[in-house]
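seq as requested:
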Amino acid sequence: MADLYLRALESERKSLWAMCRLKGLSKDTPERRRIAELDDLIGTHKARKA
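struct tokens:
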């Protein structure tokens, strides 16, 4: 069965990362902070699943 929550998190992270790369945003922008938050959420979700 597909893990839709994990897919949604990874999709949001991927789109934010692409936008940051295109715009050349620095580390202290809200978008980059959201990427770091998503990394934490993805990591905890994968650890809980294992």
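Residues 25-49 form one domain.
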